[in-house]
Amino acid sequence: MTGFEAARPRHTLPFAGTDYNLVGTLEMVEAVEAAFRESILQVASRVMSMGLNDTAKLVATLLTTAGYPTKTRDVADHIFTALGVHSPAFDALRMHLYAFLRVTLEPPELREAMAIKMGELLGKLP
Q1: Is 5 part of a structural domain of the chain?
Q2: 93 with 55: CB under 8 angstroms?
């Protein structure tokens, strides 16, 4: 695929030594809402303040929906043992999650501009 496809926002999530390709779809939104039992807007608004368990749940849900079946426990274990929950790497992971959701939830005509903005923010990560 070349260029930006507003109907299917994509994001590469670096996690556990692998780059995972996420796609913003209605199925993904439904999966997140089912996992958290709340609106995806509420989930997206608190990503940066999520603790270990909710972050792991979000990562596992997004990866599973994107075709990479993953258990929340395995994600949590990796975060806890490899990243730490009070580290720049954990903050960077949550920033990637926030950026993906932020672009996905924009109106289609505004997604490309938001993707550029989020890309600039992610480019500033250590």
Answers
A1: no
A2: yes
pTM of the shown model? 0.92
- Chain segment 61-101, per-residue pLDDT in tens: 999 999 999 999 999 999 999 999 999 999 999 999 999 99
Q: Where are the alpha helices (DSSP H) in 5-110?
A: 26-36, 40-45, 52-65, 72-78, 88-105
The number of domains in the chain is 1
Our measurement of the distance from residue 23's CA atom to the centroid of its chain's CA atoms, rounded to an integer in Å, reads 10
Domain limits at 49? Answer: 18-123
Residue 96 placed within a domain:
yes
Q: How confident is the model at residue 125 (pLDDT cuts 50, 70, 90)?
A: confident
Locate tokens 């480019």: which residue? 123
CB 28 within 8 A of CB 65: yes
CA distance 37 to 47: 15
- Residue 98 makes CB contacts below 8 A (sequence gap 6+) with 44, 47, 48
